[in-house]
Structures are given as C-alpha cells and as structure tokens.
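Example 3.2
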Amino acid sequence: MLRLIAMAGLLALMLSSESNAASSPIKDLAKRVVDRNANWVIERYDIKTKQFGKPDESADPSMWAIYITSVCEQRRDYKEANGPFISDPVQILAGKVKDDGSIEGGKDDGLTPFLAAQALESTKNDKYKPLIEKLKSKAKAPLPAELKTLEQLTSVELKPETLLSMIAACRALAKDGKKEIAIGDKTVNWAETITEHMMKREKKSGQAGYYTGDLRTDALVLQLLNVCYKQL
C-alpha cells in the first residue's frame, strides 16, 4: 500500500505546478509532516475490501467525505487518476447522494451534505457538479471559530467539532487573503502559528504520522494542515 501511495505521490509531484521557489524552513518541515499524515490517513482505507478499518467509519457517509477532502487537498494534489485509494471512495460517496440532495445513511443535520459537497468539489471533476448542486441545497456549513486568543492557535483541541470550526475559520481567512490576524495587542501569522504547534503534537509510525489514532479526527487535522500549508 505504501508503494502505491509513494508512486501516486511521485506522479502528483511531477504534474504539480507548485512553485520551485525557495521554501521557508517551517514550510519544509510542514511538507514532511503533511506527507506522513496523509500516508497514515490513506493507510486506513483497504482497497481490497473498500472499507475503512472500523465498521462504524465505513457506515458513516461523512467519514468518506472527510477522507476524500483531506486526501484531495493534500499538497500532492491526489485525484481519482492516482489510484483506487481515492477513486473508490469518491465513487462510493457519489453513489450515496439522493435526488433531493440528502445522503443515504447520513444524518439529517445539514453537515453531512456540506461535507459531501466539499469532498466532491475537492476532486475538481466537473462530472460531479450536478450532485454538488443537489447537496448544497441541503448543506449547512459549520460555524467558523472566532479566533480571539493565541491559545486557540497554539492548543487546538483535537476534537472533530472544534477542528471543523477551526478549518472553517482558516478557509475564510485564506479566501480573504489574510496572512495575519490581530490577537490582543499582537499581529500573528495564523498559518505559521497553527502549523508550528500542530507539528509538535505529531506521533510518528514509520513513514506515517498521526495525532490521536482516530481516523475522523486525524483526517480533519490533515485538512487543517492542508489549509495552513498553502498559506506558508
């Protein structure tokens, strides 16, 4: 499985348009961290059984969505052409979307359709546009965290709900082109601060890296780091 990931990563890097300009020291370190984190997340999917490691994970459509977004937005720019570790989950999720925009087996809370729309958008495959529009009719985005204290950036709570709010806040800042935010009497580079402190919490396992050992949580950590990495 690691050989498949490595080969896909090499192909993605060859095709990537990422700048060859000199990187900052923290970006160089972050590159290795997000790659290890992606390896760990991808290894949780079994391409033979087309399941995640735990039955409850495979039964939850939001888990498929979180997995897809985390992998597709990673700096290696994984897409369906890279292999079944991403193409199969995308097909499985797309097959769960109903005509009314709800999702088979999903909670009726608006969050699952939002995550599914986000996941299909991350594939950059135009054929999913009709499904995305259906999902958006039912979607409810998580509320962005209000970043008021330095502790929010340096001690991110490793819980899905908190991570979703942090990701939403960081996406909004990135969309607005804001590299720095005011916290108290200080101006802080939010992406560097989050990345620096999250890297210290990584647990290493060979060529893979994780934070809690819970797929949902660690895939969301990868999403957060993906957003931050692009701002470094």
